[in-house]
Amino acid sequence: MNFGGASQCGDFATREFGTRASRSRAIFYGVCALLFALSAAATIVACVSMSTMGDMPMPGDWTMSMMWMPMCGHTWPGIAVSFVGMWVVMMIAMMLPSLAPVLWRYGEALGRAGHARAGLMTLLAGVGYFAVWAALGAALFALGATLAALEMQIPAVSRAVPVVAGVIVLSAGALQLTAWKAHYLRCCRQAAPYRLHALPTRAVAAMQYGVRLGVHCCFCCASLTALLVVSGVMELRAMAAVTVAITLERVAPRGEFIARGFGFVIVGAGLFMIVRAASLV
């Protein structure tokens, strides 16, 4: 029996599998990099366009972004759709650096399980993930527009905004230090595809996996998302800082330690905001 020939065939098959895996990985991350670049460029353009509109001075020595109110010729439904679309593009740019490795592991697991069209299933998982962020964006727009209307109509509410913003930032920093945050951060860092056969159709299972991942991610990022909203949503420096924070706590070693470090910094920023706002009253 030619055991040497069988061994050589096995080695060739292993090398061939490794080559295909490397090629697939390169294509996957290349597509992710292109998507990140396009979404980041679109976000920058939207932020620059928004900055040219200026902000409205409000009682309490702060300014309100014009994105929360309808401009001439625009309707509330149209503004809401525009905001959610802009929000999703922004989330793609901010979340993709930490999401890409998770989606890659999901696609790999599908391939090892013998699933056909693993690439399509991975895409559907990504769609499910960002659908959750789209729903959050719609809720944030409804809340933001309602608060903007109250601030425009009631000066006392407007004057309280700087202090309330400081309290929100302080609370966000404190949330970073809790076991609740640590739990959902572990869920995101250790995200792995499981129960792939729980539903009768693989497409539904992929969407379900993406939605579940998105919900965990929204919970994990609650404090950092609050910072983004308080900063005005379309503030490029805040977006960059939050993106770096999310990516580091998700993919860097000792992510929970990093998250707590950011928490202490955010608590300090919140205290500073409260003291500054109180001094202006």
From TrEMBL:
Keyword Transmembrane helix among UniProt keywords: yes
Per UniProt, which keywords does this protein have?
Answer: Membrane, Transmembrane, Transmembrane helix
Q: Does the keyword DNA damage apply?
A: no
Q: Where are the transmembrane segments?
A: 26-54, 74-99, 120-148, 160-180, 213-234, 257-275
Q: Name one Pfam family in it.
A: PpoB2
Superkingdom as given in the UniProt entry: Bacteria
Q: Quote the protein name from its UniProt record.
A: DUF2182 domain-containing protein
**Originating organism:** Paraburkholderia kirstenboschensis
